Please model this.
Amino acid sequence: MKGQVIPDSDHVARYCKASTVEGGEVQATAFMLRDGEEYLSVNWLEDLNCSDRKREIHALQDLYSRKLSVGTTARIAILNVGAFRTKVAQESPDMRRLRVLHEPIIPEDPSHAGIYDISSDDEIIAELIAQSVLEKHPARG
Amino acid sequence: MTEALQDQLFGRYLAVRKAVAAHGFSENFEEEPNFGTIPSSAAADLSTPAVIVYPRISGVVPNVGKTFIVGYTGLLVKPFEIVPATLITSKALGTPVTFGQSGSMATQQPPITEDESVEEIIWRVGTTLSVQYRAKLTSRLSELQKAVQEEELDGRGISAKSLQHFLKLLKAYPTLRCPAVSVTPDRNIYASWKSGSDRVFSIHFLPDGKVRFVIFCPNEKHSGETIRLSGAATLDVVMSVVEPHGVLNWATE
Model:
């Protein structure tokens, strides 16, 4: 449902372009917005309704291959919603409270979601989110 | 390495010297006081004879290659890099060999120009920055340029201005370690020097010569606490702004 708050117990995945990854490590640039963007695009893993992480990753790889030109070194970064929201709230100088909302794109990307309350000059927030990455997977299947 | 192969390599080395002389330079170019030398992993591996003429970054700029010449003194292998400047190309060795047009080859550095392409700037990295990491950085920047061109629908790459500012900083602070380099959504260079989660120093190089920076550093007075701050400055003063926070402790060699 559009605008639904994604629970802290759930997870989101961010597509990290090859230009934001060095030596397999996802850099803060993967979590930065372009000028004019309203939110950081992610996918709500639990909304994919897969039985395990392996299938979730496969579903995302399939999705990306239809939407994007996926670089060989591009990665999928997995984040726990509660963990990165708490880290940002506790460690950012302005104690930023990020929101994570469901933003389904029907029919092609129903698990699409957004991380709100980031601006395009928020390097420090991007660094904190990058430090919260739980898992990294290849974006190309 | 067989004697025949060594002879062949030495023959090619002599051919290069002659080619250098043919372009009006001293044959003893390796005695030039400013002549740049770099360590070559290939030279350390005697089974890799390709190092004698090694177009390491050819392809970054069409028709521009870097040439490595190995001199042999007994069993010692001495790799030299001919630094291309304004280019004359000789195909005497079957591989493009490039030489500066006048004066000392090593000191010939093309000036930074406003309309320099990203490929030209990347090529310059291989001739001007710290020997410790120039090959690694050249490779990384080439990789990033290719990635951005593939990722973006318009096929354009990294912001040339942002890249120029990044390289200016590295030239001004040669003791800085090679940073992790990535590209922001607006195609600007973002460089990070990190040592654990509580030692982070990152700079976002904007095309207009301004920078935004992030610092995470330990709070010396409260063990286990981290100071986190961000700010904006101009390229020329950013290091003096961040130095009091101790970033050079982990950002330099």
Chain B touches chain A at residues 140, 144, 147-148, 150-151, 180-186, 190, 192, 197, 200, 202, 204, 212-214, 216, 226, 228-230 (CB under 8 Å). Residues 3-22 of chain B form the longest helix (20 residues). The helical segments of chain B are 3-22, 41-44, 118-128, 134-151, 160-172, 238-242, 248-251. The first strand of chain B starts at residue 67 and ends at 73.
